[in-house]
Amino acid sequence: MRSPPIEPEGVSGDGKLDVKVDVAVIGAGALGLSAALHCALRSRSVAVVDRAAAGSQASGRAAGLFKSVQADEPRTWLARRSIEKVTHFEEWAGVPLECHRSGSLLVARTPQHKAALHSEVAHSRSWGAELREASATELAERAAYYRPGGNELAVWCPEDVYIAEPGDLVQAYKSACLLHDVQIFESEAAVEVLVPGGRVTGLETGTRRIEASVVVDAAGAWARQVGELAGAQIAVAPVRHQLLITEPCADVRGTDPIVRVIDAAIYLRPARSGLMFGVFEADPMPIDPRHQPASFSTDDVPLDLGLLRRLAGQISAEVPLAARTPVAEHRGGLFTMSPDGRFLIGPVPDLPGLWVASGCNGSGFSSSPAIGEVLAAWIIDGNPPAGGFASFSPARFGVLTDQVLIQKGTWQYAHYYDPAPDQARVSPAQSGGDAR
Ligand SMILES: Cc1cc2nc3c(=O)[nH]c(=O)nc-3n(C[C@H](O)[C@H](O)[C@H](O)COP(=O)(O)OP(=O)(O)OC[C@H]3O[C@@H](n4cnc5c(N)ncnc54)[C@H](O)[C@@H]3O)c2cc1C
Question: Which of 27, 116, 217, 221 has minimal CB crowding within 10 Å?
Answer without folding.
Answer: 116
